[in-house]
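debug: dumping io for the single-chain case to check the tokenizer round-trip. Nothing else runs in this session.
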Amino acid sequence: MSAVAHTHVDDHGHDDHGHHHKETFITKYIFSQDHKMIAKQYFITGVLAMGFIGIAMSLLFRMQLAWPGESFPVFEAILGKWAPDGVMDADIYLSLVTMHGTIMVFFVLTAGLSGTFSNLLIPLQIGARDMASGFLNMLSYWMFFISTVIMVISLFVEAGPAAAGWTIYPPLSALPMAQPGSGAGMTLWLVSMAIFIASSLLGSLNYIVTVLNLRTKGMTMTRLPLTIWAFFVTAIIGVISFPVLLSAALLLIMDRSFGTSFFLSDIFIQGEVLHYQGGSPVLFEHLFWFLGHPEVYIVILPAMGIVSEVMSVNARKPIFGYRAMIASILAIAFLSTIVWGHHMFISGMNPFLGSVFTFTTLLIAIPSAVKAFNWITTLWKGNLQLNPGMLFSIGMVSTFITGGLTGIILGDSALDINVHDTYFVVAHFHLVMGISALYGLFAGVYHWFPKMFQGRMMNKNLGYVHFWITAIGSYGIFFPMHFVGMAGVPRRYYQNTAFPMFDELTDVQVLMTIFAIVTASAQLVFAFNFVRSIFYGKRGPVNPWKATTLEWTTPQEHFHGNWAGAIPHVHRWPYDYSKTYENGEYIIEGQDFVPQTVPLQENEEELNH
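debug: decoded output
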């Protein structure tokens, strides 16, 4: 594990790679093979564009939940025939919920987060000129872009977009005639996801090969920043689990279009018996959740890595328990592949099998708790720099713990029966996965924005506004949702007016919706700050956060190849903050950090464990 990799470009003669040929607008900004530009493309497509669409959808269906049956001109303006006289149609409600989940989980949190930061940081932090294959990297982005276009086009088909929940369970997804959202919109959903999965696999393979083969001299695996460990392990999980969802999607296309019955059996529509026999929708659940639960960690592990890095830098302390953090990442990756059945406790599963999945689910709390305790210990007695990136990192620890505690309830097969498919589940995964991952994303953007955009800094005051409104608003939306779920309110229902026992919860729905609208408005502050800072942000120093990792040794000017001369060599681990000799003096006089490129000094020990 600790063997030194071959140096990357020192032997390849590309030292002036960016100066040999003049790039055109198309090769630099559109069909770029430079990992830094591809990272920006992922962010703009996945986070800014698709994120805006996903959040807008959530506001529409939250308004319907808060004021069921009310007429809103905005409904008619946006939804057209699906909201006659401004009243939302029940079919489009389920479509909005389906597309919101699909867009946020796959396009924003998977591709937007991993695609942006894996591309930006892997070559820079391991000391490589670029990814192992720049062409495959470009190809993976453009396949992702095509999949987003197809998904957006599906919003405009006549029968409406896909409507079976983001999990796309048969038979709603397998029978084109089942409901309006089972028609062309569902077919486009499946085609989009197939292309998306191919994109993810290309990207993941590229990340894995780059980390294994292209580390600079001295960059052993135990000197990698935790960000790289997180991206590396996330890519491995993706390669293992995404093909299973691809197989499920292809079999579902065959059921829909070619008369097979992998997931269908004994189906009746309006008294008519369909010819499908022998299939099982539970088989689809197994295939879907074999990806679906590792997907949670594909989303959250990169955020964990980012938070570990940002927290150490801004606490001016070494990360606590570096090797334990690596071990916890590996343990989470392994356990995430053997817990999928806890999504299926009420599917008729054998109770013994349910107890096995309960055991493995509760087991995964241990490495998760290791990370939480290590973050808290890193903060303890640190010289905290409470900039926006640090605040979002601390916020991520808060939401991860809060949301994770409810996971213990949902992971127990006996307790889960009471709250399955209620808003308790929605509250749990939005906090532990959605909000936590978004906090990690925001922490990364504020922290590495100067590296993405040639030294420009985002406005700190607007960052504070963004954080505090988002932090208060997120808890305002999802904390009350736990109690709504415990009261038994089911998810994905268009309205609950048929159940008088839920009438007294209407005010809570209104409260959560108001918080949702306010929180969404804070994301406009972020978008404004982001776009404005690209052009008008103040330029900071080359290493604005006084960090130790290799990306801050590259010049602010961007060119394909990252370093103008030879790639620097690494001599120490990435977390030498506030390190002193026995007499209390800093290793470098007057400087509380030691970059990885500085050789060990006389009488200095390398303490990275």
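debug: round-trip ok. The first helix runs from residue 25 to 30.
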